[in-house]
Design goal:
Blueprint: H1 2-6, H2 10-19, E1 24-34, E2 37-46, E3 60-64, H3 73-81, E4 88-89, E5 93-100, E6 110-117, H4 125-152, H5 162-178, E7 184-191, H6 194-201, H7 203-224, E8 227-232, E9 235-241, H8 245-261, E10 264-267, E11 273-279, E12 283-290, H9 299-315, E13 321-323, E14 332-334
Parallel strand pairs: 12-13
Antiparallel strand pairs: 1-2, 1-6, 2-3, 4-5, 5-6, 7-9, 7-12, 8-9, 10-11, 13-14
Length: 335
């Protein structure tokens, strides 16, 4: 998510570098504050002449806030005063560093600006105003983006929330009314013995498993299926657009096996990681297809079919995938 969020800084960095004629344009993420040290991560740098070899993307800077390195006076000042800083340092040139506010639970603040490298250059008032306007604008964009993400995504797994994934299923059903000859499939997945995991290892361990399962599904989604959401508790819903159930089955089987083979990090009940200790987790799945013969009109009808197939997987030994077949007493199941 961060990479997408930080794309909004591309144009402002270009403006600072090209329009304002700075030698370097740089974006920092405020990673942490530890006692009197400010920890900054260098996220992006525009430095065609390699003027600042100390600024490399991915590098973490640890700056003393009570006695900052001369090269980073403006970074520290902008952070402490929560506004644009443009202090001229003799022999070091002058930076113009702006402060972009985000609440800590939204990922923390950003600093961005430019550097006249090794020049005694004064900053003009209109340049300061331009950067402050950009900072306010970027703060608004990031806040709006984060609020939208929170409204649509599950906090723990990062996947779509239950409400959002149901809306996506509803849109597919409505679209099917206009394209009755198309196909789509959904899969309902459930973590096996999840209550026992919580009871035995604690809820922190349960949350870690949910988060890692969400990551596995998210990584798989990019190549295999369209959307994934946390339907509720330990249940997940996957959407396969323009996909017949046999193709969805092959995909879900790959995902199921990935989860079965994954080593889930074990923690104690306080959340402390236990070295070289892992848990094995499995999931069961049920698949239902949307087609002309399905007679599906509402989300609950389609989800109910997938849920019925999932129920059969759970009751026939777990760690299985079952395809819902209408008018058939026993669905097709793969172990």
């Amino acid at each position: 998510m961060n990479a997408g969020k930080e794309e909004c800084f591309n144009l402002p960095l270009e403006i600072i570098k090209k329009t304002m004629n700075f030698d370097v344009a740089v974006l920092y993420k405020v990673s942490n504050v530890i006692e009197n040290r400010l920890i900054l991560e260098v996220v992006k740098v525009l430095d065609s002449k390699d003027s600042r070899l100390d600024l490399k993307e991915g590098r973490r800077l640890r700056l003393f806030m009570d006695n900052p390195d001369k090269r980073f006076v403006n970074e520290v000042t902008a952070f402490l005063k929560k506004r644009t800083s443009y202090i001229n340092v003799p022999g070091m040139g002058c930076d113009l560093i702006g402060y972009v506010y985000l609440p800590e639970n939204f990922g923390g603040a950003y600093l961005f600006g430019g550097d006249f490298f090794g020049k005694e250059s004064s900053i003009k008032s209109h340049e300061v105003s331009s950067v402050e306007i950009m900072c306010n604008f970027l703060s608004s964009i990031l806040l709006k983006t984060q609020f939208k993400h929170q409204a649509e995504n599950d906090d723990l797994t990062g996947l779509y929330s239950s409400r959002k994934i149901k809306q996506a299923v509803d849109r597919m059903i409505k679209r099917f009314e206009r394209k009755p000859d198309s196909f789509a499939s959904i899969a309902m997945g459930d973590i096996d013995h999840f209550k026992k995991i919580n009871d035995t290892y604690g809820h922190i361990q349960g949350d870690i498993i949910l988060k890692e399962v969400g990551q596995i599904l998210s990584d798989s989604m990019r190549g295999y299926f369209d959307l994934a959401g946390r339907y509720g508790g330990e249940e997940f819903l996957l959407i396969f657009d323009e996909t017949r159930q046999e193709n969805a089955l092959a995909i879900v089987e790959r995902v199921r096996k990935n989860i079965e083979q994954h080593k889930f990090q074990q923690v104690d009940k306080s959340g402390k990681v236990l070295e070289n200790k892992f848990l094995s987790i499995t999931m069961s799945f049920g698949i239902a297809q949307l087609s002309k013969a399905s007679e599906i009109d509402e989300v609950k009808d389609w989800v109910s079919m997938a849920d019925n197939a999932l129920y059969f997987s759970k009751n026939s030994g777990r760690n299985k995938t079952t395809v819902y077949i209408p008018d058939k007493k026993q669905p097709d199941t793969i172990t």
